[in-house]
Amino acid sequence: MTSMRRPNHPVPKPRRVFQRRRRVPAGVVFRQLSAVVLMLAGSCGIIIGLQRLPEQVDVVLLVSEAVADLIRGVQQLLEAFLGLAAVVLIAALVILATVLMLGGLWRLLRLILMLTGRPSQGRR
Predict the structure, then answer these.
(1) C-alpha atoms less than 13 angstroms from C-alpha of 101 in its C-beta half-sphere
(2) Is the model's pLDDT at 64 over the cut of 60?
(3) pTM above 0.90, yes or no
(4) How distant, in Å, are the alpha carbons of 9, 39, 88, 103 from that of 81?
(5) Quick one: pLDDT at residue 72?
(6) Residues 77, 71: Cα–Cα separation, whole Å
(7) What mean pLDDT, rounded, does the chain reach?
(8) pLDDT tens-digit readout, 6-55
(9) Taking phi first (over 0 means left), then psi (-120 to 50 degrees means alpha), and beta for anything else, what does residue 117 get?
């Protein structure tokens, strides 16, 4: 038997085209307004502090020392990279020398065995 039930489709909501907008909650407005006021007050305070800074500190000297420190830091970093590259190069040379020495000894051993006339089993 077949039942005559309707499928469970959601009922479409009527479109809100010409309806009035809902009011924005007062809490959201207060939160946004307080954020705006705090941000503007903070920016004004920072600007006033920056305007008074040259009276208390020699800005040119401060900037030049900062640039000099930055240059010294980059120089030390490059020197460290150069030292690391030297260590890596020395390690690579040690590994190369070891491989060459082992290869040479292995060939010398095969040459000595060939010259002494030891019969080889050959390849199978």
Answers:
(1) 6
(2) yes
(3) no
(4) 68, 44, 10, 33
(5) 97
(6) 10
(7) 85
(8) 557 676 776 767 777 778 788 888 999 999 999 999 999 999 988 887 77
(9) left
Using alpha carbons, list the distances in angstroms from residue 93 to 90, 97, 99: 5, 6, 10
Radius of gyration of the chain measured on its C-alpha atoms: 41
What are the two backbone dihedrals, phi and then psi, of residue 118, each rounded to the nearest 5 degrees?
Answer: -65, 130
DSSP-derived 3-state class of residue 1: coil
SS3 14: coil
H-type alpha helices, the chain: 26-56, 59-115
Please say whether the beta carbons of 53 and 59 come within 8 A: yes
Q: What number is the average pLDDT over the span 74-88?
A: 97
* Higher-scoring residue by pLDDT: 25, 71: 71
Spatial separation of the C-alpha atoms in residues 64 and 47, rounded to whole Å = 22
Q: Give the position of tokens 């500190």.
A: 57
Q: Is 114 helix (H, G, I), strand (E, B) or coil?
A: helix
On the CB side of 13, how many CA atoms lie within 13 Å of its CA? 3
